[in-house]
Structure formats: structure tokens, C-alpha cells
Amino acid sequence: MQIALGALASQLPFFPNVTLDPELFMVLFIAPLLYLEAHEIDKSELLKSVKLSLSLAIGLAIATMVAVGFALHAVWPAIPLAAALALGAALGPTDAVAVSSLGKEAALTQRQTSVLKGESLFNDASVGFQFAIAAAVSGVFTVGDSAAQFVFSFFGGAIFGLAVGMVADLLFESLRSFGWETTTSRILMELFLPFILYLGAEAVHVSGILSV
Q1: What whole-number distance in Å separates Cα of residue 199 and Cα of residue 56?
Q2: Distances from the Cα of 129 to the Cαs of 82, 83, 125, in angstroms?
Q3: pTM (2 decimals)?
Q4: How far does CA 95 lie from the centroid of its chain?
Q5: What is the largest CA-CA distance in the chain?
Q6: Mean pLDDT computed over 89-109
Q7: Helix or strand holding residue 46 (H, E)
Q8: What is the pLDDT of residue 104?
Q9: Which residue has the higher pLDDT, 140 or 49?
């Protein structure tokens, strides 16, 4: 309903011409939604299925990117391969919120839900998307350099998230032990944390999604 109303409103002659920065969208919406899903996921089930989730998050994302990219380029040669690969990367990630919403309707088992939720949290197809877009714009694509950057971004984001998470946890515990924690301060810190994680990781050129 909101999407339909927004589409109709945009056609009104007095409606202002609004442009949304994609990076702003990632920060405002994706970061807090991912944080909420990561906060609520069953940690024990995630650890049990972490290998399978990671294999899907990395292997399936790359396979989707390559399959869609080469198939589209073969069917429609006018589309450069790099641009086709970018589309494949955009179609690769699984939405963590969608898994939660559709899991009940699809009657998924607890293990299936945990695997898909874990995969959606670990899947940062934006890295592959950025590489493909860069190749499409510059006309240069080096497999070795791209793979090294992907590994650095993936594991760097996870390590950054763990480090900031440990510091935040220590801060929360310290405030509680000194009796300084209030409902307001706790809510404010919880609200700011996903944005700090995402923006901080992006500032050091690692995956903000993995960090969150």
C-alpha cells in the first residue's frame, strides 16, 4: 500500500523531485534490519549450521552472479558482461527479513530456517556488485585482485564487527555495574550501534553488512 501510494504521489505535478542516495538507503534501512535479525537469531542453531550457511552465502552468491551474468550476456549480447554480472550479484542475496516473514507460510523446519537466516546474514553480494560495476565503468576486471579484495572485505567486516561488538558489550556491562545504565541510555546505544558498525566498517573499506 505504501509503495502504491508513493508511486501515485510521485506523479502529482506539485510533488518534489526527490532522489535517494543508494548508500543512504543501505545505512538507514538495511543496517538496522540486519542488526535486528542478527540480534534475534538462535545463536546455537546458527553455530550448528554455520558451515552450510557460509557455503551458501559465498558459493551460491558467486554461482548466481556468474550464471545470471553469462546467461544474460549470451541471450542479449548488447549488455556488457560486467553489467550482466552486476545484475546477477544484485539478485544473489537472500533477505533476512523475508526469511523470517515467509518461513511460517513455507512451513520450514527449524534447521532450514536457521540455515537460510544464517546465509542471509553472511551474504554480502554488494561486494561482487561493486566489483562488477567498477569493471563495467572502467572496462578492466582482474580475477585475482577482485578475489583478494572480496576475501579482505568479507573477513575484515566480520572481524571489525566482532571487535566493535566486544567493545560495546564491555561498555554496556561497565555502565550496568556502575549503576549508570538507564532505559533511555540503553535504547540510544542499541539504536546507534548498527549505524556505527556499518559506517565504521565502510570507512575502513570492509563489509558493513558482515560487520553488522
Answers
A1: 26
A2: 9, 9, 6
A3: 0.72
A4: 8
A5: 65
A6: 69
A7: helix 43-48
A8: 66
A9: 49
